[in-house]
Amino acid sequence: MTTAAKLPSTGSSARAFATGFDVEKIRRDFPILARDVRGKKLVYLDNAATSQKPRVVIDALSRYYELENANIHRGVHFLSELATAEHERARQTVQQFINAADAKEIVFVRGTTEAINLVAQTYGRVHVGAGDEVLITAMEHHSNIVPWQLLCEEKGAKLRVAPINDDGELLLEEFAKLLTSRTKIVAVAHVSNALGTVNPLRQIIQLAHQKNIPVLVDGAQAVPHMKVDVQTLDCDFYAFSSHKMFGPTGMGVLYGKASLLEAMPPYQGGGEMISSVTFEKTTYNKLPFKFEAGTPNIAGAIAMGAAIEYLNAIGMSKIAAYEHELLEHATRKVSAIPGVRLIGTAKEKAGVLSFVIEGIHPHDVGTILDQEGVAIRTGHHCAQPIMDRFGIPATARASFAFYNTKEEVDALANGILKVQEVFA
Q1: Which of 104, 187, 213, 275 could form a disulfide with 287, with the two C-beta atoms 3.0–4.6 Å apart?
Q2: Residues acting as catalytic residues
Q3: Is 57-313 CATH 3.40.640.10?
């Protein structure tokens, strides 16, 4: 087998890529980025699936289990009081990070999926009835489709889907037409995990609110890449996951306006979500604990707080600017390769470059790139309706974080050339 041709390098200094952004210094904070994979230096471009963790997050997990481990909210001993304080400090950190009005509007959950299910099974079950409608878009992750399908099947309601154009952008006029007196809730991604499209959230929310329709936002792919202000957006619910924003797995957040959360029934029953229990009647705890049944992921919450503090120290505006340049560079490099077609070419994008190579299945692309040490995601990305919309079974998806470099993008592009050579 001959050696694949290489694309010309676009510069050796990643530091020069964005003024004031020292990516090499940042990379040293992530232990896993120093390892080799299959004899090659790891190039990790699967951040939309899960991000890598900085040392401060790993240390926060270890510190909790080594020095602070105790259950929270119930104990009067030193360790319980310490763990409780750290857990609730993490809640305040999240509140400030997304600019929620009050810490009680921050509900800790396992991740975005549980957050959306919580809203569907509480707010949704109360407010959606036979003949009503739930409006989503054609670019949603399965986690923002299936919970609403289950609700609609149970209630005899209808799931409506706002279409997208060939660039992967929401057709806002069509979306507006689908908002009717029967629409009881809108659920929409802030950023598409499969296309990278950034939706015009403020316009979407304003259109919905003109008809007094609440809006839930799936923010899983947005929070790691840009500043999110839930009060400025005026969304009613906002869901995101810790593991996509450099925190631990099994941890996430549901933001909800206090007035809505107060009126919603509990999602699960058990310890912590109660105020008092008799065999005749149970009264429920105050917000946010009404929605946090059982022992929570205490270590996960604390470590997620550490991840947010790490992001704050870098600055979300700097992260967004650097990643924008990185995505533009990747778009230029990959789209210039003959036989490669980009899937998702919206004017406003974040973090994701999905593509197909003529005559080669995405799984084969991912397998060969892996042999070059390049980790990407292949498949339908839990967004099968998007694949159907573009008439393809799957894509290869490179997704970026602020610790990625131009040189890693070049490695991806050279890897694509290698794939083409193998299948020539």
Answers
A1: 104
A2: 382
A3: yes
Are the CB atoms for 335 and 109 separated by under 8 Å? no
273-331: pLDDT as tens digits: 888 888 988 888 899 999 999 999 999 999 999 999 999 999 999 999 999 999 999 99
Q: Which two tokens stand for residue 103?
A: 């810490």
Q: What type of residue sits at position 220?
A: A
Domain ranges of the chain: 14-34+315-422, 57-313
pLDDT digits (tens, 9 = 90+) for 185-217: 999 999 999 999 999 999 999 999 999 999 999
**Residue 58 neighbours by CB distance under 10 Å:** 16
Reference 138, options 117, 169, 179; nearest CA is: 169
**Angle at the Cα of 130 (from 125 to 133), degrees rounded to 5?**
75
What are the tokens at 160? 């409506």
For residue 355, count other CB atoms closer than 10 A to its CB: 23
Report, at the CATH architecture level, how domain 14-34+315-422 is classified.
Alpha-Beta Complex (3.90)
DSSP 102-147: -GGGEEEESSHHHHHHHHIIIIIHHH--TT-EEEEETT--GGGTHH
Alpha-carbon distance of 255 to 107, in angstroms, equals: 6
Query: What is the CB neighbour count within 10 angstroms for residue 131?
Result: 10
Tokens of 396: 């290869």
